[in-house]
């Protein structure tokens, strides 16, 4: 019954947005309240669940997305995006620019949370798209596939790191196995799959579109790359900090503070304001106007993401994820690695959150892992792959991609949802293959 209710709510959401043409945020509120009533949540708790869901997801993302949009706008209007695109094409050639972005996305995705990496890399994607008149989805999706794979498969991302601890797995071993699976998953779900998507129409957000500037007005190549990738550099340094064996508590607290993604984005924006703004002869007033425009452009995206958080919270509070997982474990007699993947995939489709799907599935299959019936490192990767399956309208990543690339819901399903599903299936196949040798 719970699955039927979730299916009904998802169909209702799609119809409200695509057929009725209702604002997605309002549609999410209606569907979240409907789901709460149908799933038996006490009526007094439904509104508080909606508010908590919105607050939780925006509390994590709003600073990052807003500051990232400002930095992206700065990179665009200063000419840095144009310069970066020119350098990349000069080094790799226009023919291989897609592969250059894929490699960049994978390297950047290892230390960065997905949401941060998305916000940082979109301006770079769009600069290449506008400069060389290339299809946006064809160029952008492979890079985002890299980010998604690292988010689901590789530590130090939250879900795989938590699963490693729960299963007493080895982080270095899991990383090596994850890397071996990630490469083919990215290639197949990225450049290979994207080659079939060249005709999808996409007019990305205007905020990242800048007019071509004369060469003598562009910032230098080092300045452009350094400023655009400064958040990545800071977060990579933070990730490496624990290996320096520093024990001074004051230094450790300072490093943790500076390494917080919100602080990193603030530092990067302040540095960029000087290096790409004031240093290039722009006034602070002109930069403030550009930052204001960036906020206007992403306001609806923030509301939509908040709405998806409300829906997820209602489903979580109802306990439906535990019901689904328990029913699956009792009714299905599958190889443990396949069972872990399937439970994570169904919860992911139901709730939308990869992290929640992974952690919920882990709690169900943990006894099998701890009893020694399966390789714990491979179970981490199997659940991680399942947690990426079929991202759709209840996932904030779906809406980020749709709104930034300005796509229809149908085309978002054809591109984004299909890509995530390919990554998930290739991940499971890779796990099963490795299981024959380790």
UniProtKB/TrEMBL annotation:
It comes from the Bacteria. The chain crosses the membrane at residues 26-45, 57-76, 96-129, 136-154, 174-197, 218-242, 254-277, 298-318, 338-371, 378-401, 413-434. Its main location: membrane. It holds the Pfam family GntP_permease. It is found in: Cell membrane. Keywords: Cell membrane, Membrane, Transmembrane, Transmembrane helix, Transport. One of its GO terms (molecular function) is gluconate transmembrane transporter activity. The keyword Transmembrane helix applies. One of its GO terms (cellular component) is plasma membrane. It is a multi-pass membrane protein. NCBIfam families: gntP. Belongs to the GntP permease family. This is Gnt-I system high-affinity gluconate transporter.
């Amino acid at each position: 019954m719970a699955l039927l209710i979730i299916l009904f709510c998802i169909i209702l959401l799609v119809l409200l947005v695509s057929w009725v043409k209702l604002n997605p945020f309002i549609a999410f509120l209606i569907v979240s309240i409907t789901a709460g009533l149908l799933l038996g949540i006490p009526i007094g708790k439904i509104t508080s669940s909606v508010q908590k869901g919105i607050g939780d997801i925006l509390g994590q993302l709003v600073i990052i997305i807003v500051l990232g949009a400002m930095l992206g706008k700065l990179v665009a209007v200063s000419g840095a995006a144009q310069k970066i695109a020119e350098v990349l094409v000069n080094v790799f050639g226009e023919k291989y620019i897609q592969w250059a972005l894929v490699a960049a996305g994978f390297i950047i995705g290892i230390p960065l949370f997905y949401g941060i990496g998305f916000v940082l890399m979109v301006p770079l994607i769009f600069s290449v798209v506008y400069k060389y008149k290339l299809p946006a989805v064809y160029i952008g999706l492979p890079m985002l596939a890299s980010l998604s794979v690292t988010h689901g498969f590789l530590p130090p991302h939250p879900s795989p790191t938590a699963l490693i601890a729960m299963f007493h797995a080895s982080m270095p071993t899991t990383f090596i196995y994850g890397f071996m699976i990630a490469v083919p998953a990215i290639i197949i779900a990225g450049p290979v799959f994207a080659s079939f998507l060249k005709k999808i129409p996409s007019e990305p957000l205007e905020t990242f579109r800048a007019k071509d500037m004369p060469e003598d007005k562009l910032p230098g190549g080092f300045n452009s790359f350094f400023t655009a990738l400064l958040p990545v550099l800071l977060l990579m340094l933070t990730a490496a900090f624990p290996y320096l064996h520093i024990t001074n508590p004051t230094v450790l607290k300072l490093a943790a503070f500076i390494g917080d993604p919100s602080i990193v984005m603030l530092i990067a924006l302040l540095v960029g304001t000087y290096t790409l703004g004031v240093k290039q002869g722009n006034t602070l007033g002109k930069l403030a106007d550009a930052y204001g425009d960036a906020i206007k452009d992403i306001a609806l995206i923030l509301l939509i993401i908040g709405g998806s958080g409300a829906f997820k919270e209602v489903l979580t509070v109802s306990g439906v994820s535990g019901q689904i997982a328990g029913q699956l474990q009792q009714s299905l007699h599958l190889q443990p690695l396949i069972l872990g993947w399937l439970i994570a995939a169904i919860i992911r489709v139901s709730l939308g959150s990869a992290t929640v799907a992974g952690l919920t599935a882990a709690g169900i299959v943990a006894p099998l892992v701890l009893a020694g019936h399966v390789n714990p490192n491979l179970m981490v990767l199997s659940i991680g792959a399942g947690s990426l399956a079929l991202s759709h309208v209840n996932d904030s990543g779906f809406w980020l991609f749709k709104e930034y690339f300005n796509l229809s819901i149908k085309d978002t399903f054809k591109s984004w949802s299909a890509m995530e599903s390919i990554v998930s299936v290739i991940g499971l196949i890779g796990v099963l293959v490795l299981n024959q040798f380790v």
